[in-house]
Design brief:
- It contains four helices and four strands.
- It has 90 residues and is of the alpha+beta class.
- The protein has a two-stranded antiparallel sheet.
- A hairpin with a 6-residue loop joins strand 2 and strand 3.
Length: 90
């Protein structure tokens, strides 16, 4: 999931603590592969272990950034075949 911020960064940052807690929940659930903010900070990337776009969107639905209208997510299906994540398994 690739996010784009829809609000100024200072507004996004006010919700960042809740967003990071949400990302922690994804990690505890075993569905988070990796996540981080883009540089420059215009959005972020969250790599999920999800079978379908619908599942990924369901997982992302409770994100405070979405709930507060601060960001939108574009889903990109990706299957790593090379590099550090090529053999990653849930």
């Amino acid at each position: 999931m690739i996010s784009t911020y829809l609000a100024p960064l200072d507004q996004v940052d006010k919700a960042r603590e809740g967003h990071l807690a949400f990302v922690d929940d994804l990690e505890r659930a075993g569905v988070l592969v990796s996540a981080g903010r883009q540089d420059p900070p215009v959005g972020g990337v969250i790599i999920l272990d999800a079978e379908t776009e619908a599942e990924a969107r369901e997982l992302m639905a409770p994100d405070p950034y979405l709930l507060q209208g601060l960001a939108e997510y574009a889903a990109t299906n990706w299957k790593p075949t090379r590099g550090a994540l090529a053999d990653w398994k849930r």
